[in-house]
Amino acid sequence: MKKFLLLIFTLFVSSQFAHSQLTRGETMDKVLAVVGNEVILLSDVRGQILMMAQQDPRVNPEDPQLFQELLDALINEKLLITKAIEDSIVVSDEQIEARWQAFLQTLIQQFGSEERVEQVYKKSINRIKFELRDDIRNKLLSANLVQQLIGNVSITPKEVEEFYNFYRDSIPKVPETYEIYHLVKYVEVQQDEKKRAFELARSVRDSILRGGDFESFAARYSQDFATSSKGGDLGWVSRGKFFPEFENAAFSLEPGDISRPVETPFGFHLIQVVEKKKDAIRARHILFKISQSTDDYERTRAFLDSLRLVAIERNNFTELARLHSDDKETRGFGGLIGRLPMSELPSNFRDQIKQLKDGGISEPLSYNVVQNKPASHIIYKKATIPEHYATLEQDYEYISNIALDHKRMKIYNDYIQKLRKEIYWEVKK
Questions:
Q1: Cα 357 from chain centroid?
Q2: What are the φ and ψ backbone dihedral angles of 382, each rounded to 5 degrees?
């Protein structure tokens, strides 16, 4: 579903934001199309072409076909926005803020810092946010409408078979894939270190309850350095964004309350709720990290190495993974990650997969997919499946995913054509 939405969701940058990237000497702006109460400007299309060219040097900014495709995509998006407004689809302030923060982080990763973003676009972060707000809202309106349209679409085995029989000759070859398993162990700390962090958190809580200022203590003690200078303020966050332990504790508090120490993979937290809505809260926290020692890492690696030797001797990797792996998502399947092409393998262990022979098991390797919860794992490369033409017998899931995307795309395209008949739109000459 996420992959499909990426295919139909236009570049997540507002037309206003794109305007700032146009260079001197551009033709004076003009209205290219009208859709309901929305307009599409020449600079909207040119701005997006410019951004595409910056990201991919193979893009020809003068390509008339690309210009027409982007104009059509913008018309479709405006149709969706108009329909979403007609259907009273709601986008909350919390959704807008969450999407803005995600976009801001993308910009920071691209340019290195907030200061550099401001230098590139010659605007303050607050100004960029202000100019993007309406566009973010519109993007979310169209995305929510598409989610309602195709979010629950499924496909039956009969449909998969019919799709395969009809499109058999045009289905892409299944690339070379690797059947991969792993066994994960988190690096556990000694109880003394855990007790030290807990006791410090409890002591700080007692001091705050005796009249101390939460924000001052956050600035002094919190090891979440992104928020400590702001008194631990996390801003408004909707349900589903925190670790379950943190979220359950935070949503059980009333404004002004301070939690007891709450443990998450980051460490222990003291939480104070500032404001509260049904599905969102504004909270502060003080983080007390639990630090792993060198001995903790070595102990974990030694345990994994002992399991590796047993698996090699007894050929029972999947059985050991079911018994010992800390990865809940794969443990029940004997550690199976899946049959994946090299391009879809996690980048942090592609090299190890290349080096392993079929049936081989790696040495213990670092595996840090959960922030602040370090782990190690051993990888079992069961088999290499050469590139081949897809068959229902061997590649049902691969064919099913393509067939489902095809079904969703047809539903989407049919819906767009329906909107083009129902909603006023016009391309200006």
A1: 32
A2: -70, -45
DSSP labels, 121-183: HTS-HHHHHHHHHHHHHHHHHHHHHHHHHHTT----HHHHHHHHHHHGGGSPPBPPEEEEEEE
Helices then strands, counting H and E runs in the chain, come out as 16, 12
- Residues 238, 368 within the same domain: no
Whether 241 maps to a domain, the answer reads: yes
User: Residue written as tokens 């008339």?
Assistant: 64
End of a domain among 239, 266, 289? 289
What would the pLDDT profile of 400-429 be if each residue is shown by its tens digit?
999 999 999 999 999 999 999 999 999 987
Taking the CB of residue 14, how many other CB atoms lie within 10 A of it?
Answer: 21
Same domain, 222 and 109: no
CA distance 351 to 340: 14
Largest separation between any pair of C-alpha atoms in the chain: 75
**Residue 395 covered by a domain:** no
* Cα-Cα end-to-end distance for the chain: 37
Convert the pLDDT of each residue in 212-261 to its tens digit. 999 999 999 999 988 998 999 998 888 888 888 999 999 999 999 999 99
Q: Alpha helices, DSSP H only, in 286-362?
A: 294-314, 317-324, 328-331, 350-355
DSSP string, 360-403: EEPPPEE---STT--EEEEEEEEEEE--B---HHHHHHHHHHHH
Report how many domains make up the chain. Answer: 3
Final residue before a domain boundary, out of 243, 274, 289:
289
- Helix H or strand E encompassing 341: strand 336-341
CB atoms under 10 Å from CB of 349, counted, come to 19
Same domain (yes/no): 262, 347: no
What residue numbers bound the domain in which 415 lies? Answer: 2-154+408-427
Residue 390 lies in a domain: no
The CA distances from residue 48 to 125, 142, 210, in Å, are 21, 18, 56
Pairing mode of beta strands 280-289, 38-41: unpaired
The answer to whether residues 45 and 111 belong to one domain is yes
